[in-house]
Amino acid sequence: MAALGNPTNTIAVLQKYHFNFQKKYGQNFLIDANILEKIIKAAGVNENDCVLEIGPGIGTMTQYLCEHAREVVAVEIDKKLIPILEQDTLSAYDNVTIINEDILKLDLHALVQEKNNGRPVKVVANLPYYITTPIIMGLFESHVPLDSITIMVQKEVAERMQVGPGTKDYGALSLAVQYYAKPEVMMTVPASCFMPRPNVDSAVIKLTRHAAPPVTVPDEKFMFDLIRAAFNQRRKTLVNALGNAAGLCLEKDSILCALEKMECAPTIRGEALTLEKFAVLAQLLYESLPIRRR
Ligand code: SAM
Question: Among 71, 116, 256, 281, which residue's Cβ finds the most Cβ atoms within 10 Å?
């Protein structure tokens, strides 16, 4: 078993198994040992941890995780990679479970129960960029027990998770991430650290889960339905964006009344509201709903 995290051994494994990269799976493998060491350090992985890795690829980061964690669960969608992982690159480790599945379809609660007695796991991954948002939202919204998520994502997406109102990148992802976690960009990573090279620069972001959300809302889903509707039509006023959203069934008068109580202009847009303001708006609008719709 060769140590990965460098171009020579990566190419040797790829050639040995006649592996062709699948663009549809967002396959860009890390080939820089220095970056890998830094990711493990940023994630704070130690010998007590159970780590969930999404998309091990040929097992490059998995090798590092196996060296530092008590237990690693690696979920890979591409069945062609499974024999490489099982028979070759991870064969020397007895603390890894390889699962050939789509992360979006897996019952993660059952997995965390089985592998870590339901105690919080750490998620560490070089994510497939085509599904970054559904993966992050799925992890948070399903309330899978987790301490932190340390992930490589597209640099712009990492920035979007950190920003506040008044910037063009501020949106539903920023609000969702900040509701559930404290985001910290740990490092930027140039395209030259991957094989094949992606067309974008990347960044490692750590999302440390809040013990309790920073705001209180009567119904989390209702607040996120409001947020999504506000940013689906981000150039429209909040009154129009929410009033036009079919699924919400909100009267424009109720929205105007709520904004007045919040001392916000009737022409305000969603992109000007902080998480705290969205929480107040959600509270006021929720109270205005007929009981049967709550
Ligand atoms: N961890 C490896 C590395 O750093 O070299 C590979 C990272 S590569 C960016 C993303 C990996 O995620 C690929 O191996 C890809 O096949 C896998 N993947 C893509 N979609 C997936 C999904 N829905 N569920 C699980 N794995 C997925």
Answer: 281
Q: What distance in angstroms lies between residue 30's CA and the mean position of ligand 1's atoms?
A: 11
The whole-number pLDDT of residue 1 equals 64
DSSP the chain: ----SSHHHHHHHHHHTT----GGGT--EE--HHHHHHHHHHHT--TT-EEEEE--TTTHHHHHHHHHSSEEEEEES-GGGHHHIIIIITTT-SSEEEEES-TTTS-HHHHHHHHHTTPPEEEEEE--GGGHHHHHHHHHHTT--EEEEEEEEEHHHHHHHH--TTSTT-SHHHHHHHHHEEEEEEEEE-GGGEESPPSS-EEEEEEEEPSS-SS--S-HHHHHHHHHHHHHTTTS-HHHHHHH-GGG---HHHHHHHHHHTT--TT--GGG--HHHHHHHHHHHHHHS-GGG-
Going by alpha carbons, the residue nearest to atom 5 of ligand 1 is 29
For residue 3, the CA-to-ligand 1 centroid distance in Å is 19
Return the residue whose CA atom lies nearest to atom 8 of ligand 1.
Answer: 27
What are the structural domains of the chain? 7-209 (3.40.50.150), 220-293 (1.10.8.100)
- Which of 126, 135, 137 to mutate for ligand 1's pocket (most ligand atoms within 8 Å of CB)? 126
